[in-house]
Amino acid sequence: MSEHAYGMKKTVAMGVDEADARVREELKKEGFGVLTEIDVKATLKTKIDVDFRPYRILGACNPPLAHRALSEETDIGLLLPCNVVVYEGDDPNTSVVAALDPKIQLSITGRADIEPLADEVRARLVRVIQAV
Fold first, then answer.
1. In what order do the strands lie in the sheet with 82-88?
2. Residue 14: how many CB atoms within 10 A of its CB?
3. N or C: which end of the chain has fewer CB within 10 A?
4. CATH code for the domain in which residue 36 is found
5. Per-residue DSSP letters for 35-85?
6. Which pTM does this prediction carry?
7. SS3 of 30, please?
8. For the chain, what is the domain count?
9. What is the pLDDT of residues 48-81, one digit of tens each?
10. Domain coverage including residue 88
11. Residue 84 and residue 72: Cα distance in Å, rounded?
């Protein structure tokens, strides 16, 4: 797994459909469900007639953790859900699984008391990515 300024990612030796299924399975193990899904490839083709690699954005939510966050700060819903992406890799038969780092995402609140929650969400998402 590698990290960059705002997220973490991993390239896996499997197609997008298999990687997507594995991500959903691992998210479920960590208490997340997928609330939203954007098929970027289909959307770009429909809206602007552009061909793009298979690319899915999954809006993942862990209800108990979301409730904790919303109870701390009602407007934190602007930063939810956790985005996880699955897209076709550059090499044949590979996919990339990536997630926005919740520590970065929630740090914009400027609230130190939310850091432990961000740490917990991050740990769960790291386990998801590592398990795929």
1. 2-4, 7-12, 95-100, 82-88, 55-61, 33-39
2. 17
3. N
4. 3.30.310.70
5. EEEEEHHHHHHHHH------EEEEEEE-HHHHHHHHHH-GGGGGG-SEEEE
6. 0.94
7. coil
8. 1
9. 999 999 999 999 999 999 999 999 999 999 999 9
10. 2-131
11. 23
